[in-house]
Design goal:
Elements: H1 9-23, H2 29-40, H3 44-56, E1 61-65, E2 68-72, H4 75-111, H5 118-145, H6 149-157, H7 160-184, H8 188-195
Antiparallel strand pairs: 1-2
Length: 205
């Protein structure tokens, strides 16, 4: 019987995003270290690294409240973050392709009527570096294109999930504000200022 193949890094990222999308909830690191192995087959030891990579790419939000860090993700924001990264990588890829083409033409010109020169050698060296950069960009573009295709397709088909999630969070914020006003006697404007809540926060129609 063959040994079961473990998840690669991108598969772990995709499954971590599924936790946020499916639950539409806020988590601490210790919560995800318990949930991820049980529900998504992600080892608890790798949860922190996977989570940090998603935060770095803007797909997961985080904030420190008191002594604890909390993590959450909206489907719409994750899609936009992934699209921005793809656009950025594809732009770099196009630029590298143009530079490569221009260098190739320069090298061809340098061959006419002359032996190998320092200029031609430098051009060849730069062309080799650009080819390597181009391959790296191709690999990274594919990584982002393949990240959780089912979730991406679902988000493209409907914005309803994102809308409901946003309204749920708005409702939660209003509930917390109401509780804080009753519990501590804080004015609403003070609560908004302390937690950076926009004055015009409202539900999405």
């Amino acid at each position: 019987m063959s040994k079961k193949k473990g998840l690669n890094f991108e598969e772990k990222r995709a499954r971590m995003m599924e936790i946020f999308f499916e639950t539409k909830d806020v988590f601490q690191l210790k919560d995800l270290e318990k949930i991820a192995p049980k529900e998504k087959g992600i080892t608890s030891m790798s949860v922190k690294e996977i989570l940090q990579s998603l935060v770095d790419d803007g797909m997961v939000d985080t904030d420190r409240i008191g002594t604890s860090n909390y993590f959450w993700a909206f489907p719409s924001k994750a899609l936009h973050a992934r699209k921005r990264k793809l656009d950025e990588l594809e732009s770099q890829f196009a630029e590298s392709s143009q530079k490569k083409e221009a260098l190739q033409k320069s090298i061809e010109k340098s061959k006419i009527g002359r032996e190998d020169t320092a200029e031609r050698a430098a051009l060849l060296e730069e062309l080799a570096a650009l080819r390597q950069k181009k391959e790296q960009l191709k690999t990274e573009i594919e990584k982002y294109r393949e990240c959780d295709p089912d979730v991406v397709e679902e988000m493209r088909q409907t914005n309803q999930v994102a809308k409901e999630a946003a309204n749920r969070w708005t409702d939660n914020i209003f509930s917390v504000k109401s509780w804080a006003k009753r519990k501590f006697g804080f004015e609403e404007s003070r609560i908004d200022k302390c937690f950076g809540i926009p004055e015009d926060l409202d539900y999405i129609d």
